[in-house]
Amino acid sequence: MLIDEADIYMEHRQVQDLVRNNLVAGFLRALEYYQGILFLTTNRVGTFDEAFISRIHIMIYYPPFTNEDREAVWEGFFRKLEDEQGETMNILESTRDYVMCDEVQGLKWNGREIRNAFQIAVALAQTEGDRDKRGRVQVRRDHIKSTVRMSKDFKAYLNKLYMKDETQRAATAGNRLDTFGVPENVLGSEPFI
């Protein structure tokens, strides 16, 4: 069984929140006696109630994506689109090249963000309806570039608002440590103001 985004069941209990405490306690009891394999996903491990640590048999740490990981995710989405809609959709080579450039890779998108950007790019291409000689809708570089621009602008806004980037905000709040196990030379420096 999979419980995605299981944060609500796993967060620290607090004296003033009896309803949440009951939810967590009930989940802990159910977890204690569960006989099958249960996968819980979260990106807020720093908020775990300590009682969960002894009840979880195997914890798997996933390091942040590398650029090679991102490339593989993009390629997976490109192949899937070609396999499923290759007769009606075409991804230009310049589009494939663009997602590997420093501008896109520098955003350090995770798999969900890549999927969202890809879906937006495909929707933009379908809306514009620019077709090749075979009548296939063209997914162009500028479709991805529009998404990149919006993402950069919004991240810059959040960074300015909080005076910290996403990694720093997560660490400060104690939610997670994105820099764990990442060599210093890979971290780089992202301006946040």
TrEMBL record:
<protein>
    <submittedName>
        <fullName>ATPase AAA-type core</fullName>
    </submittedName>
</protein>
<dbReference type="Pfam" id="PF23232">
    <property type="entry name" value="AAA_lid_13"/>
</dbReference>
<feature type="domain" description="AAA+ ATPase lid">
    <location>
        <begin position="65"/>
        <end position="164"/>
    </location>
</feature>
<dbReference type="InterPro" id="IPR056599">
    <property type="entry name" value="AAA_lid_fung"/>
</dbReference>
<dbReference type="InterPro" id="IPR027417">
    <property type="entry name" value="P-loop_NTPase"/>
</dbReference>
